[in-house]
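Let's study my pick:
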Amino acid sequence: MSGPILTIGELTDLWSIKTLDFLHKIVFTMRVLSLLFVGMTVSFLCTSLLQRFFLTMNRIKPFKISFVWASAALMMFVTHFN
């Protein structure tokens, strides 16, 4: 009866590798969510400021920037330089 018998050290190494992998996934998810939140907030502020600026100018009609496109463009910019 010879089978793969793991020692205590090997078991703790295996557990720590799986735990670290899980923690890395959590940290990555939190970073993505925080970048998404920051990107959406900044894009919302930029679009509202641009709309307010163009509303004050009577000669130019206000244009609407899609919130989704603005946040997607900002996220691509942030992740490109990250």
